[in-house]
């Protein structure tokens, strides 16, 4: 019996099976992670490409935002059939107005604060003086700057989220700005006054 145990102890056949067993799970996790990242990069590229195509369509006079959004959503859903696509668009009078406080047009006491009797350019047409982040709803008019934000959320293809502690839903997003063609005179933002 002791001789048999000694022979088993010296036996090297089958050792690679144990080594393979130890490396198999980390290798699979690494492989699935790489595939998940690759798919996410691919999806992000598709979303960005569809957004750029939509933005180019927005620049012309006859642009219909509903049709443009439908084409954009269809392009994303071809790659991710069960994705949730969220499209947000807004227009600005110029690039300089994005993420800035709306300009005072009349400052009675010169303190650069909105007081009674003061007026401001209401860029986003919401009736309050604020920092303009999303712009006026829609794609605006001639010579306006349009900002598109698109995000797509989808369930991950592989169950990698179980192993590395991430959410099972991945979200990719893209943002672009485009200036519409000057096919007509640009309309000025409305002026509002605090009373």
Automatic annotation (TrEMBL):
Pfam families: TadE. The keyword Transmembrane applies. Keywords: Membrane, Transmembrane, Transmembrane helix. Residues 14-56 form the TadE-like domain. InterPro entries: TadE-like_dom (IPR012495). The chain crosses the membrane at residues 20-42. This is Flp pilus assembly protein TadG. It comes from Sphingobium jiangsuense.
